[in-house]
Specification:
Keywords: Oxidoreductase
Helix content: 40-55%
Number of strands: 8
GO biological process, one term: L-proline biosynthetic process
Number of domains: 2
CATH architecture of the largest domain: 3-Layer(aba) Sandwich
Distance between the termini: 25 Å
CATH class of the largest domain: Alpha Beta
Oligomer: single chain
Shape: globular
Strand order of the largest sheet: 3-2-1-4-5-6
Protein name: NADP-dependent oxidoreductase domain-containing protein 1
CATH superfamily of the largest domain: NAD(P)-binding Rossmann-like Domain
Strand content: 5-15%
Family: Belongs to the pyrroline-5-carboxylate reductase family.
Function: Probable oxidoreductase.
Radius of gyration: 21 Å
């Protein structure tokens, strides 16, 4: 309930002149971008976490069969450890979304910010908040950059030598192009969503809702779907390609055979996510080797070899085999849309 609903003099728009009211749409756009950013970060974390858990379980069962499992060394590796650099408005909203919607336990999330004393509400939940970027990066296997563009170069200089090869850097700093970010961080494991805004659009973003509550609203959640233009904000689909190549890199880091990685991808992400699969499983799309690598590589790769390590910056900037598969298969697009909504517990079927 909005307690200011009937108190016009206390509302945001009251003091704005008529000639400036044409700019009010920017408020809705800003909120829409925040919601989209948090939604896509949550979705990626869910996929990343689910695949890591399945890979760990798979390796554990194989190790048990030969009696070589070292639980002490693998338990900590299996956990998703997320670090956030930047404790401003975006960093706070992202923290709430990850805690509530992934959900991440407080001990799996840490924040590095210049003002850790301003994050007492998160510290009370058990989240470590400090100002030591290199320490955060050395601990985490996923980093979210939620800082200002002017702050990014010194941050990159601070963390680049602590970054592990398999640590994903997820950047919300849209003003810094991917090639420049790759150079600053000296890593290829970078994801950066890119959004485009329409000039005229309906503001559906729920001005008085918390971000976590907004993402449990079916109308708002469907508007954040990767293939949805609702709300006037569209996501560059190259981000979705980067997400799946990032998942392949998880298997490569675990030295898993490419055939086994594909099997797990299909099992975890394309298994029974659509009602048609229950009646005709043969019609369900399946990821294949040729979807991710070129035909020359397909002919020369051995069955038990892992995928190559993919440069995620190249994936998001250039055409890939997966680009062709995504653009040509509306069935796969539909499946990924169902997967996205299912991950938030929202059905695509509209209620009467």
């Amino acid at each position: 309930m909005d307690i200011l609903e009937d108190l016009q003099s206390l509302q945001f728009e009251y003091g704005i002149s008529e000639e400036d009211r044409s700019w009010l749409y920017l408020r809705g756009r800003s909120r829409g971008l925040m919601i989209e950013a948090c939604a896509h970060a949550v979705f990626f974390c869910k996929l990343f976490q689910n695949l890591r858990e399945v890979i760990y379980e798979n390796q554990s069962s194989r190790s048990l069969s030969v009696g070589s499992l070292d639980l002490a060394s693998t338990d900590d590796d299996e956990k998703l450890k997320v670090g956030i650099i930047g404790g401003g408005h975006l960093g706070k909203q992202l923290t709430c979304a990850l805690l509530t919607l992934v959900p991440l336990p407080a001990e799996s999330l840490r924040i590095s910010t210049r003002r850790p004393e301003a994050l007492t509400e998160f510290q009370k939940l058990g989240i470590q908040c400090f100002y030591r970027n290199s320490y955060l990066v050395d601990w985490a296997n996923m980093i979210f950059l939620c800082c200002l563009p002017s702050q990014l170069p010194p941050i990159c200089l601070d963390i680049q030598y602590s970054l592990k090869k398999n640590c994903i850097v997820y950047s919300f700093v849209s003003a810094i192009p991917l090639p420049r970010l790759k150079l600053l961080l000296n890593t290829t494991n970078i994801l950066r969503p890119k959004y485009q805004c329409a000039e005229d659009s309906d503001n559906i973003w729920g001005a008085n809702k918390e971000i976590t509550a907004a993402l449990q609203d079916p109308v708002i959640l469907r508007a954040t779907c990767p293939y949805s233009p609702a709300g006037g904000i569209t996501l560059n689909i190259k981000w979705l390609e980067g997400v799946f190549y990032a998942l392949l890199n998880i298997g490569t880091a675990s030295n898993m055979a490419h055939s086994q990685v594909l099997q797990l991808l299909n099992k975890v992400f394309l298994s029974m996510h659509h009602k048609d699969c229950k009646t005709d499983e043969a019609s369900c799309p399946k990821f294949q080797l040729i979807d991710f690598v070129n035909t020359v590589y397909v002919k020369n790769i051995f069955q038990k070899r892992p995928f190559p390590w993919f440069d995620l910056t190249d994936v998001q900037l250039k055409e890939t085999p997966f680009s062709q598969r995504l653009s040509s298969s509306t069935v796969l697009q539909d499946y990924l849309t169902h997967l996205y909504c299912d991950s938030f517990g929202i059905s695509l079927v509209k209620e009467d």
